[in-house]
Write a structure and sequence with these properties.
Elements lengths: L8 H27 L2 H22 L5 H33 L11 H14 L2
Helix pairs in contact: 1-2, 1-3, 2-3, 3-4
């Protein structure tokens, strides 16, 4: 990190704008390769840039901002996939236990396979 104390908002805004302007395409391309999906990659990158606004003000601008954005986006997507997988597992358990009426059971068959594949890709 270039600074240990808080960094002025104007410096953070300038650094984020610069990274966005020069690195957005590379960041999304790398995330597409890691996540296997354009929409997921773009959404994860957007979330990482939003996290950078808050984090960089307190922790300072990292020495490798593009790497920070990519790592943060990847971890955010892994967390999202884990939450979705846990939700699917819980819904299946509730449905199997009879706590959810069978006429209103959601179907997650193909989505579960996609989520599991996404988690495997992220964990590589």
């Amino acid at each position: 990190m270039t600074g240990t104390a808080s960094t002025p908002k104007s410096d953070v805004a300038q650094a984020i704008a610069s990274v966005y302007k020069t690195e957005w395409g590379r960041i999304v391309a790398i995330l597409i390769r890691l996540l296997g999906d354009f929409d997921l990659a773009e959404e994860a990158a957007q979330e990482a840039f939003a996290a950078a606004v808050n984090q960089w003000e307190t922790s300072g601008i990292p020495d490798l901002p593009r790497a920070w954005i990519i790592r943060t986006a990847r971890y955010k997507e892994i967390d999202r996939l884990r939450r979705r997988t846990r939700l699917t597992e819980k819904l299946e358990w509730y449905a199997a236990s009879g706590l959810i009426p069978s006429s209103k059971e959601p179907t997650y068959g193909s989505e579960k396979a996609t989520l599991q594949s996404g988690v495997r890709n992220c964990l590589r």
